[in-house]
Write a structure and sequence with these properties.
Layout lengths: L1 H16 L4 E2 L14 E2 L11 E17 L2 E12 L9 E4 L4 E5 L5 E10 L2 E5 L4 E9 L3 E14 L2 E14 L1
Parallel strand pairs: 1-2
Antiparallel strand pairs: 3-4, 3-5, 3-11, 5-6, 6-7, 7-8, 8-9, 9-10, 10-11
């Protein structure tokens, strides 16, 4: 009887010691587990880690121009830009210290500044302005951000109103 107990104990010990720790095994993930041997699909990704290269910018919205109350232009805007030379930012690196660097298509630094995230809002402080973008999705290799630009101005009798949303799709 004693031998059976030792054999069962030994078998239990062998099988329990073979259990591999599960968790996120992707080093770009926010919840990366260095001890995990099996990826359990729990990886969560953020903006930091590598550079984001813009693939397209879709612009949708309206613009109206009137002079003295008379409409001169009433336009709907709907286009997608994919030409690398026209995409801004072309490449964006978000750093752990909440700074960013923007590069052009020739990998020259265009500008740098700071950033912060609160809920799904990404605030980017550029040298000239502050942009508030909405994070649509962020994954291991894909990022979607949207920016709404709405303004009404009056200049020398002309009224210009626009309400435009841009969606920036990037890959890492």
């Amino acid at each position: 009887m004693k031998n059976i107990f030792y054999v069962l104990f030994l078998i239990t010990f062998i099988f329990s010691s073979c259990t591999k720790e599960e968790g996120c095994t992707d080093s770009l993930a926010l919840n990366y587990n260095i001890d995990a041997e099996n990826d359990d699909g729990s990886c969560e990704f953020g903006l930091v880690g590598g550079s984001w290269t813009t693939q397209s910018i879709s612009t949708n919205g309206t613009m109206t121009v009137s002079f003295g109350g008379i409409p001169l232009l009433d336009s709907t805007i709907n286009y997608t830009e994919t030409n690398p030379d026209s995409l801004e930012p072309y490449r964006l690196t978000m750093n752990d210290d909440n700074t960013y660097i923007e590069y052009d298509v020739m990998n020259a630094i265009v500008e740098s500044g700071t950033w912060a995230v609160l809920s799904d809002q990404l605030t980017i402080n550029t040298p000239d302005t502050t942009l508030v973008l909405t994070i649509g999705s962020v994954g291991k290799s894909n990022l979607s951000l949207s920016l709404n630009l709405a303004e009404s101005s009056n200049d020398m009798g002309a009224t210009i109103d626009y309400d435009i949303t841009q969606v920036i799709n990037s890959t890492r």
